[in-house]
Structure formats: structure tokens, C-alpha cells
Amino acid sequence: MLAAAVETEPGEEPLLQLALESQRLWPEFAREIEAASGVSVDYRGEGTIVVALNRDDAEQLRHSYEFQKGLGLDISWLNGLEARRLEPHFRPGIAAAVLSPGDHQVDNRCLARALAAAARKAGATIYEQCPVRAVAMTGGRAVGIETERGHETADIVVLAAGAWSRGIGGIPAESLPPVRPLKGQMLAVKMDPAAPLLRHVVWLPRGLYLVPRNDGRLLVGATVEERGFDPSLTAGGLLTLLDGAWRAVPAIEELPVVESWVGFRPGSRDDAPMLGPSGIDGLVVATGHHRNGILLTPATTAVMSEFILSGRLPDIAAALDPRRFARGNAAPARRATAAQ
After folding, report:
1. pLDDT digits (tens, 9 = 90+) for 245-261
2. Partners of 217 in the beta sheet?
3. CA atoms within 13 A on the CB side of 303
4. Which of 56, 108, 238, 297 has the fewest CB neighbours in a 10 Å radius?
């Protein structure tokens, strides 16, 4: 979900400009990746709808709407009838909705395949199923990595291991990025691709969401749980997802469940990414993207490329310098909500 507008919450203003810039870059970025790889990333531009099912939901949605509108974001308030014209399978009687036409989506799995293919065609070598054990250090400088294949020398090492970034050895404890896993349970049901229940990305109360894919899958997500790397699917988690989806789109009860899974978002202390210098010569950081890793892919690419080539962090990412968490500068942790 490339949702720079509807996902913006109070306290996230420092991240907004980077998110909007990345969203602006996405259409051309998608075209470039597809041209370089020959693989579609299924970029879709129908927009995003945030739904309020009842009066209480509508009051909360109105509060978010006014905050986001005050930031100059392109969103529109809809009554229930207007929302059902856009998505006829919404439950009759929904209270209100917000339409964000600029919040689009891309298929993250297709994107990963396309990026890998493009990288290989550009001359990169990708080693799969080859865990990195440690960053190799000499004289306080990163000089490569240690993997199951042995030692790999590098002029620059980029730490981009997501929720697993603190598990890479060789890095002094005080220089490890403060990243923790935020567990998320998800499932997918199967629609008829020729007659899908939904065409827009839909955000539901309690932070749940529905994402229609071109292949007919409808993704239902996602819990946010402080459970470490617990990989288990739970009855309560799946019930939360299905119940929330059914309350907005009752026809979902007829669709077969085709997949369920657990993922781990990389959360930082302030829920914003860490991009740039690690405090160790030769080691740079690109992690902590929380729920915005795909949205921020083009901007992260641009920021990290500029920093690696010039040694300068662009102004748009200055607030995301990983050294903001150095002793004495640490921001307080933000508590996870019940759902993303």
C-alpha cells in the first residue's frame, strides 16, 4: 500500500515529506523496474478508501480527516451512499468514508521478483539462503561481511536486514540500530478476477485493511503484536481479520481462504526509518521502515545512493539519521496499536 496520505498520523509529520516524495516517484520507478526486468510489479492507481461503519467510527475518521486535510493532503469526505457507489459491496448503511485518490498500491511479491531480475541484469550477484553472520571489522572500520560462504570484502556495507538488523554480529552494541520486530498476521481470500468484490484499497476501523490484487486475491491484514519473532498464526488474530473484513464487506464470507501468514515489520523507537551513517566508517544503515518499506522504496534508493556516493545525507532525510538514537538523543518508544 502506497498510502502516504491516509496513513499519516499525528507525530509523523517529519516523515511525511519523504513519504510524499516517494509516492511521487513510484509511477516512474515502477516503469523503470519493469523495463529493466521484464517483470510486472502490478502497480495500480485506483486509490484508497477509509471506511467508517458507524457513528463512533465516523467521529474518529473525521478527526483523522481534518488532521490530514490540514497538512494539505488530497483527500475527500464521502457519505455512505457516495462510498457505496465506488464500492457496491460495502455493507449498506455505512456511516462515512474518506477517498484518497493518490494512495495507490503495488504487489510487493512481484516487486521483489522484478528488483532481483533487474539487479542481475545490471551485473549484481544475489546469494539466496546465505545468512550473513557478521560484519567484518578492521581497525574500527567495516571492510566486508562474513557469511556461510566465507568472507566477502566490500568498500561499503549496507545494513538492510529489516527486523533482523540487530542480529548481525560484529557490530559494537552501541552502534546496533534500535530495531524490533512487530508481528503481523494476514490472510488472503480468492475473488473472481473478472468480477472482484473490491477495486480500491480499503482501510477499516481498528487499522485493518483490504487489498485487491490483479490475480484475484484479496489480502486481509493485519495485526500488530509485540511478540518478538513468534511465527504462530492464532485463532484470535485470524478472527479479528475476518470479523473486521466481514463487517465492511459481508460477501467476503463466501470466498475461499487461500493463504495465511505472519510477517515481521522492522520498528524503530519512533516508528521512522533509519537512513544513512551508522557511526562506523564503511557501514551505512537502511532499516526501521515499520509499515512503510514498500512505499519508501524509491526514496530510500535515492537517499542511500546519494549518501554512499557523496557522503551527504539529503535534507529531506536529515531527520532520519540513525545517530538520532545515540546515547542522550534517544526518542521515546511508541507503543504499537492493536492493528496496523
Report:
1. 999 999 999 999 999 99
2. 190
3. 28
4. 56
